[in-house]
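Exercise 7.
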Amino acid sequence: MNSAKTRLNETTWYIDVPPQAVAESVTEMSPAIAQQTEKKLSETVMAMLEHFKQPDPIGLPGVPVPDPMDIPNMKHSFSVGRMQFFNVKLYGLKQFRIHHINADISAMKVEAALTIDKLDVKGNYTLSTWLSRAKGPFTVKLYQVYVVAIASLEVSRNGTLEAQDMDMDIKFQNIEMDFQGLGFFC
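Solution. The predicted structure, written as tokens, is:
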């Protein structure tokens, strides 16, 4: 299996908790706040249980997954030249299956593993070498993708629990690449 490591610092996932529920302990919550929090948690758990009763559940209810997701412009230099990638989009993120989720609330850490049958990356590139220059559209297809993400949890000012500073290890079974306009480079 091939793999790549990615670190996402800008990604934030939210779990909605009433601001009043962020207290030192459950005994510090007022009964009304505790009841409101319990009801919200119960509704969320029930929606997830219903979702996972399906034979092959895909995605997670209530989790906004950008699909396609814009990828920031990238540059990569190597011994014979330099590549630039721009207008890049990632397709297929909504089609994930949860392998496992482990949350350690006392340590404020969460680990999740997901599988995705196929991811498509589409965009444009330029390749500049001391011999020539090539540019055009490109497509990269990743098959049988396995992602393990580890994140720290923090409570925001408005009381939501947020996953931040996410480290991701991405493995895939197969990759297909099509860089149009490469000429003699391919």
